[in-house]
Design goal:
The structure holds 2 protein chains of 2 kinds. By secondary structure, chain A is an alpha+beta fold. Chain A is built from 12 helices and 9 strands. Chain A has a 9-stranded mixed sheet with strand order 1-7-8-9-6-5-2-3-4, sandwiched between helices. Chain A is globular. Chain B folds into 2 domains: 7-122, Beta Barrel (Elongation Factor Tu (Ef-tu), domain 3); 147-205, no CATH class. Classes of the chains: A alpha+beta, B alpha+beta.
């Protein structure tokens, strides 16, 4: 028996009750925050000033800052152009595992290029890269972590999608990746300098894209961030006497905006204010909007769409990205998510059988009895028993 | 004209047994094969196994099922699913004979073809040659089928074979084939009636 179901079942009702209560509390807090949101964003200029003051004072921040659009409004998508190009990239990876006979790392990136209006099938490309030995084991002999490899993968997604673009592509051109647009600064990354260098590379790549008028976006499905709540906490800090205790529980933007954005519409555009110690100077400036990809009024489904700041300054480009991503998500309308990203993921995903095939391919390159290959750990061997 | 110029590769073998086999092909390769067509697989020992296409199966998967329920699918994504995604069209083939050392037999081959062997569509000459031998004994394989619309398969095959024989000025072939079918079904009146019905329909074309 793989699980002691009886034991789990004993606690299941209690767990469900706790989770339900937690959600009710979150909704209550969201209800209170809603009126605070109305108040705070009714004077966006004042709110921006408060946030800019906080940027000077605080060493660490992660919040939303309203830009030109009215945060109390939601916006319809303009009509789609007849012809445009959509490029999507997604990746997966093999992380080195000390329990295996051989430690190695691999990234696998799937790219899909769709020329809408051509009637032609999308071009697909799969790039599989075996990481160099020095990339998976540092000088102290530490193996690269999941986050280290993910950083390499994220950067390759962005460079490869850029390399795909040719002057023959029909404009407008939009490149989309899954997840935040800037490379996420994961706490588990061992080589901080490398992470900073990757962020700088993403910044430079975006500059190239801007020069060529190529749009880019990061799509985050079921986002969990609380940038709006953080924004309201900063507003509370300044605007209320006596000072109120900051809310410990963070309410997700999704919960806060869920009923404010009609199906198919988007929120106003906000800027992401992200400040941490050790941030690089040349870092991508990112804006975002929430997009309700649902078509059913009572069941909103918000995705966060991140865009470079320069795009946020041109409302027609924001509208174009809104229209393209909403249309792409509607292809899979029972579970709306951009089809092109799903296909890029489908291309890239590495299955266990493929992991083992690559491992065998590599092991075959070593001379018989080579000490480096060794054996799988006994633990790993026993896990594989069926 | 050499055989390599006229035999059209239409797929590769997925699985096989002596009496039937299944090949996979991409949608782009689907323009040539048709129900009832004579096909062959060449083995490593240069022998060839012949068969008739009895079923062409378009597979689905969970993504296609999602798309089917969608309101509208861009043309480009329909093409993506047809031409890019790894969903082979399955061509089911009934084994009807084989050649060994240049001799054609209408019996089952001693062993089935192997996976990834290439399936070829036979040209008109091969079709005429194979179907004229052994008093059309290969037709018995079709009549043994239980899980297929046998009459429709017969009609599809005879139509293609008749056209090839007529083009080669062999106008008697079709009536000989009909006589063979009547002989094979002489003890199965019900089936004979439905076969004759479909042959009548064929002759009206």
């Amino acid at each position: 028996m793989p699980l002691n179901y009886a034991s789990v079942d004993n606690n299941a009702s209690h767990y469900a009750e706790e989770a339900q209560n937690w959600l009710i509390e979150c909704k209550n807090i969201a209800g209170q925050l809603n009126s605070l949101y109305d108040e705070a964003v009714s004077d966006p200029e004042h709110l921006r000033q408060i946030i800019e003051e906080a940027q000077k004072r605080k060493s660490s921040l992660y919040l939303a800052k309203p830009l030109q659009e009215d945060p109390l409004q939601s916006f319809c998508a303009p009509s789609l152009p007849q012809n445009y190009t959509l490029l999507s990239a997604d990746g997966s990876q093999i992380v080195p595992n000390r329990h295996r006979a051989l430690q190695f790392g691999l990234i696998n990136i799937g790219l899909l290029t769709v020329s809408f209006g051509s009637g032609q099938p999308p071009e697909i490309k799969l790039v599989s890269e075996l990481l160099e030995h020095k990339e998976i084991i540092d000088e102290d002999g530490n193996l690269a972590s999941e986050d280290d490899i993910a950083l390499v993968r994220d950067l390759r997604e962005r460079t490869l999608i850029r390399d795909q673009i040719t002057p023959q592509f029909t404009r407008p051109i939009l490149t989309v990746t899954d997840g935040p647009l800037d490379i996420f600064y994961r706490s588990d990354i061992q080589d901080k300098k490398r992470a900073q260098s990757a962020q700088r590379d993403v910044y430079l790549l975006d500059q190239q894209l801007q020069q060529q008028g190529i749009l880019s976006a990061g799509y985050i499905d079921k986002p969990g961030s609380s940038m709006l709540h953080n924004m309201l906490e900063i507003y509370k800090e300044v605007g209320f006497e006596p000072k109120r205790e900051p809310e410990k529980r963070r309410i997700s933007d999704r919960l806060l905006l869920g009923n404010r954005i009609k199906p198919g519409e988007r929120s106003a555009v906000f800027e992401i204010i992200s400040k941490h110690r050790g941030d690089v100077v040349d870092r991508l400036r990112v804006a975002f909007f929430y997009l309700n990809v649902s078509t059913v009024p009572d069941y909103p489904w918000l995705a966060r769409v991140e865009i470079p700041y320069w795009i946020s300054e041109q409302p027609e480009l924001v509208g174009l990205i809104h229209a393209i991503l909403f249309a792409d998500a509607q292809v899979l309308d029972s579970h709306p998510y951009p089809y092109s990203l799903h296909r890029a993921h489908e291309l890239a995903v590495v299955k266990q059988a493929e992991y083992e095939e690559i491992e065998n391919l590599l092991l075959a390159k070593f001379p018989e009895g080579s000490e480096i290959t060794g054996y799988r750990s006994n633990k790993d061997f026993l896990k594989g028993l069926k | 004209m050499s055989e390599t110029q006229t035999s059209i590769p239409i797929g590769k073998l997925l699985r096989a047994e002596n009496s039937r086999f299944v090949a996979g092909c991409r949608v782009r390769e689907l323009e040539t094969p048709a129900l009832g067509a004579l096909v062959k697989v060449k083995l490593e020992d240069q022998s060839e196994i012949y068969g008739l296409i009895t079923r062409i199966l378009i597979n689905d998967d969970s993504l296609v099922r999602q798309l089917v329920s969608g309101v509208s699918i861009p043309t480009e994504y329909t093409a993506d699913n047809r031409y890019n995604r790894n969903l082979p069209v399955e061509i089911h083939v009934l084994t009807v004979g084989y050649t060994q050392n240049g001799h054609i037999s209408h019996r089952l081959p001693p062993r089935p073809p192997l996976s990834l062997d290439v399936l070829h569509l036979c040209n008109s000459d091969e079709l005429c040659h194979f179907t004229s031998l052994n008093e059309q004994a290969y037709l018995r394989h079709i009549l043994r089928l239980l899980d297929q619309p046998v009459e429709e398969l017969l009609a599809a095959h005879l139509r293609q074979a008749k056209a090839a024989h007529d083009a080669a000025n062999d106008v008697n072939w079709y009536s000989l084939a009909c006589q063979k079918l009547i002989t094979l079904l002489r003890d199965d009146y019900q089936r004979l009636t439905s076969v004759l019905d479909v042959l009548t329909d064929l002759e009206r074309e």
